[in-house]
Amino acid sequence: MHIIGRLFAAAIGFIVAVIVAALFLLAAEVGLQPQSTRDADWFYAMFTVSSIVTAAGIGAFVTVPASVVILVTEFFALRSWVIYAAAGGAMGFAASKGVVLVSGQESTTGFDATVLMATGFVAGLAYWLVAGRMAGFFPSPREENPDRQG
Questions:
Q1: Which residue ranges make up each domain of the chain?
Q2: Which domain of life is it from (predicted)?
Q3: Is pLDDT above 80 for 147?
């Protein structure tokens, strides 16, 4: 039963991390305020739609590598926020290299690569806050019997 709960927590954590990544990426690229007050309604409507589309794209891109990281950290009960932030940053770095391959450019700009890595860091921390702090498929003896000393 504990494993089912952990899988559910991992799924919720992944969804939250993808949404946070999409919001962070769009905020870094276009900002949080419209250029003029006249365009505010249009800006926020487009920001909302773009967030949904961006979250879907990010989710599709990172599902497999994130699943591997989640399974490894759950199996070995790795709970350090550094692991999740580093894994997210690595996925962001891979995304910056993927942009180069898809676009046919020589390389991404330093700003784009930095923003994608920072997006990965933020997403990794969001996952850690939701599910990573309690990682571990198998409860420790202390969790099974809290009255036991040792």
A1: 2-139
A2: Bacteria
A3: no
Which residue is it, tokens 């700003």?
111
Residue 123 reports pLDDT greater than 90: yes
Using alpha carbons, select from 126, 149, 138, 129 the residue that is nearest to residue 4: 138
Q: What is the pTM of this model?
A: 0.84
143: pLDDT confidence band, cut at 50, 70 and 90?
low
Give the pLDDT confidence score for residue 129 in this predicted structure.
97
Residue-wise DSSP of 80-138: -HHHHHHHHHHHHHHHHHHHHHHH--S---HHHHHHHHHHHHHHHHHHHHHTGGG--SS
Cα 114 from chain centre: 15
Report the distance separating Cα 83 and Cα 13, nearest Å. 15
Interatomic CA distance for residues 2 and 76, integer angstroms: 15
